[in-house]
Amino acid sequence: MDETGRGGVIAIAAKRSSSAPGGLRQSARRSPNAQSGRRSANTMPKGLSSVVRVLPSDSSECHLGSFIDYTVNGLVVGNIYALLAVGLALIFGVANLINFAHGSVYTIGAYIGWACITCLHTPLPVTMLIVIAACGLVGVIIERVGLRPLQGSARIAPLLATIGISFVLDQLVQLVFSPDPRALPSELPNWQIAIGGGTIGALDILIAGIGLLSAAVLFAFLRFTKLGWAVRATAQDREAALQMGVDVNAVNSAVFAVASALGGLSGLLVGMYYNHIDPAMSFQATLKGVVAQVIGGVGNVPGAIAGSLVLGLIESYGIALLGTTYRNLFAFVLLIAILVWRPNGLFGGRAGTQAEPLTGTFIAPSRPLRVPRPALWMLVALAAALPLAIPSPYVLQTLTNAWLAAMLALSLTLMAGTAGQISLGHAALLSIGAYASALLALDLNVPTLLSVLAAGVVTGALGTLLIFPAFRLRGHYIAIATLAIGEIVGLVILNWESLTRGAIGVTGIPPLSVFGQDIYSAQAVYWLCLAVVIGLALLQMRLLGSHFGRTLRAIRDDDVAARCYGISLDRYKALAFAFGGFGAGISGAITAHLFSYLNYETFNSQVSLSALAIVILGGMGNVLGAIVGAVALVGLPEIFRVTTEYRVLIYGIALLLLIRFRPQGLLGTV
Amino acid sequence: MKAPPSETATRDPLLRLAGINTFYGAVQVHFDVSIEIGAGRIVCLLGGNASGKSTAMKVILGLVRPRSGSIWFDGEPIHGVPTQEIIRRGIASVPEARRLFPAMTVRENLLMGAYARSDKRRVAEDQARVLDLFPRVGERLNQRAGTLSGGEQQMVAMARALMSRPRLICMDEPTMGLSPLFVDRVLDLISAINRQGTTVFMVEQNASLALQVAHHAYVLQTGRIVLEGPARALLHDARIREAYLGGEVAA
Ligand SMILES: Nc1ncnc2c1ncn2[C@@H]1O[C@H](COP(=O)(O)OP(=O)(O)OP(=O)(O)O)[C@@H](O)[C@H]1O
Ligand SMILES: [Mg+2]
C-alpha cells in the first residue's frame, strides 16, 4: 500500500479531493488485459494516477471498438452516478436539502463491501444485502441525529449539518480502515463479450442490471406502495401531507434509508469496477451525484437517472478526446452552465412547481458580543508581544497558520455572513492568490512583497469575475455553484500546464522579503501575518460600519425588498467579493511563499469547508469572530498536538454542535 | 364556583379550545382564545387579515403548538398529540389555498385523503359516496390536480378531506378566490356535508357568506375573541355589520 497519505495537512488535503474514478485505473479497466491492469492500478502512486493522460490504447487500429468501449464505460459510470443521484433527488424532494453526506455513505458502502468480501468471504449477493442494510441504517441515523433536530431553523442549516456529518463519517472511515487505498476484488467471472471491436464484461452487465432493477423497484415503490405515495406527497407539499395524516418524519427516515442504501450499493459497485477504494472517494461522489441531479432537475427522480447517464457519457467521451484530467472539468462546467441557464435542469420544464425561494444564509438572530475598544487594543498588544514572551517557533508557526486562516475567514465571513452568499469553494481564492504571487515572483522576478499585493488584486478581480455567473442564484444553488467554481479553479490549474506547471506544481517559490531582506525567522513571519490580519480586519470593520456594509446586510436579509429600493445587487455583491477576494488572495500568496511549494490541491475543498466551520464558530459576519474562530479551530488543535485525522473529526463535530446549539456562534452574528 | 353546572355543560362539545395562547417566536397571535364546536354543527371563525384564524386551525391540527391552553376532541386532550394521530382520530382539513398535490392525479389526491385509513374496501365505497356529492370531481379523476381550475381545486380539496371519514372537518377560507356561482356551490356543499353528519369548523373573512350557512360564530380580532353567538344573531349584530358588512371599517 502506498504511504503518500500520511502526515501533513497538505497530504491529507490532497487525498480528499483526488477522484475515485481516477483516470488510469479506468483505462486499465477497459484495456484488453483488464484483470491485470486493474491490479496494477492499485500500486500506482495516487498523485500520478490521476495525471497520466490517457489515449485509447488501440486508437490506431479500431476507432469503432474504442468508441463502443467509451460508450459502455460512460453508461456504466452513468449507472453508478444514477444510484447516487436518485438518492439525492429523493432527499431533496422530501427534505428540501442537498445531502452533502451522501458521498460518505457511498464510501461506507464500499468499505463494508470490502470487509465482507475480504474478511468474511461472503458471496456477492449476501455482500450486497449487507451493504444495503447497513447503509440504510446509516441513512436513518443521519436523518435522526443530524437533521431532524434542525427542523424550523434556517434553510441552509441542514445543508451545513450534512457537511459536518460528512467530515465525521469520512474521518471515522479513515480511522477505522486507514487512509490507504484498498483493492476490492469483484469476485465475478472474468468473461467478456466482444461487440464490434469493443468489449462488455460481466461486471458491466451486473452494474447495468442493478441500475435497471433499482430504477424499477424505486418506481414501483413510489407508485404502488402507501409509503411511496407519502413520499411523493411530502415532496410536493410537506404541510399538506402532514394534514392528510402522513408522518413526515417517518417519510424522511424512509427516504434517507432508501437513498443511503442505493448510495452504499453504488460505492460497492464502484469499488469493484475500479478494484480500488479509498476514504477520499466520498467528496467527489457527492459532487458527481449533485451534478447529475442538477442536469436532470433538482429533486426530479427520473431526471436524476437521465442526468446521470448524460454525465457518464459526456465524461467518457470527453476523456477519449482530451484526457482524464479533464473529466471533472466537464462535470463542473456543465453544472455551472445548467445552473445559470437552465436551473430546472435539462428535462424539467416544470418551472411552476419550484419550491419557495431558498432564502440564502445562515444568520441566526443574535446580539453580537460587544468588545470594548481598549480591550481589543489590549488583545492586539498581547498578540504582538507574544513572540517576545514565547519564542518557541512551533507555537509561533501555529499561530501564524491561525492568522493565515483568519484572513480567509475574514473574507468568507464578509461574503457568507454579511453579503449572505454562502461560499463552499473559498479555498479557490487561496489557490489563485498563491499561484499569482508565486508565478509573478518566479517568472517575472517581481519582489515578493509586491507580488503578494498584486496577487490580492488579481484574486479580487478574478474571484469576482468567476463568481459573477452565480450572482442570480440563491441558497442551496449558490452553495453548489461556489463549490463547483472552486473545483473548476483547481482543475484549470491542473490542466493549464504552460502557465501553472500542471500536476507537478510550482517549486522553489522564493521566501518573503522586505527591501531585499528575506524573512525567515518565525517571529518575523508571525508579526507580518499578524499585521496583515489586523489591517484587513480594521478595513473590514470600517466597511461594515459604512453605507456599503448596511446595504449588503439589507440585501442579505431581503434581496427582493432591496431590489425594490433600486439597489443594484450585483454591484454590491461584486464589491464584497472583490474585497473578500483581495484578503483571501493575500493569505494564499503568503502561504505560497512560506511553503515554497504549491500544487493544485494545496488548497482544496477541505480547506474551504474548515473555513466555513471557523466562520460559523466565530459568528457569521463577525470580524472579531472570524479571528477568534481561526485561532480556536486552527491554533488550539495544533497546540494540543491533535493529529490531522482527529482534527478534521473535531471540525465536523464542532460544525454539527454549533449548528444545533449555537447557530449564532461564539461572538454572535452581525 | 358561583354558577351551578349549566345546561350547556351537560353535552360536551366535539372540539373545545380552552385558553389558547399562541406565539410565533416572540410575537403573540392568540390571547386566551376559547372556542367550542358542538357536534353536528357548523361553527365559523370570522376575522380580518392576520387576526390569527389560520393559526387557530393549525393549532387544532397540531401543526402549531400553543404555548399554553388545552384542546379537547371528543372529550380527550389532543394538545401535544402528533398531527397524524389527530387526523386518525377523525379531524380532516381543507387547508388555506387548497394545497392539493399538484403533480398527482385527482384520484391520487383523493386517496391521499384516506391516507390515515387502512380499510381498503371501505375507502373505495367512500370514494363512490364522495363522488356522488362532487360529480364534477368524478369527471376529472385522471387529470393532474395542478391543472385544475381554482373552483375545481376547491371541490377536490373538500372531497379529499371527506375521504378520511372525518367527524370534524376544518376549512380555511373555502370560498376564497371563487366566482359567485362557485361560492354558492361551495356553501351548499358545506351544508350538505353537515347534513350527512359531519361537524364543520370554518374559518372565513367573508362574514355575510359564512353566516348564511353557519349555526354559530366567533369573531377574532388581533388574536382575541371579541364576539360570539348564534349565526343568525350575529348577522344582525351592529358590530359585525360595521366591521364586515360595510360601514365603518375598524383596523
Ligand atoms: N409561520 C409563521 N411564522 C411567523 N409568523 C406567522 C407565521 N404564520 C403566521 N404568522 C403571523 O401570525 C399572524 C396571524 O396569521 P394567520 O395566518 O393566522 O392570519 P389569518 O387570520 O389567517 O389571516 P388571513 O385572513 O390573511 O389568512 C400574522 O401576523 C402572521 O404574519
Ligand atoms: Mg389565513
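Residues 1-10, 246-251 of chain B have pLDDT under 50 and may be disordered.
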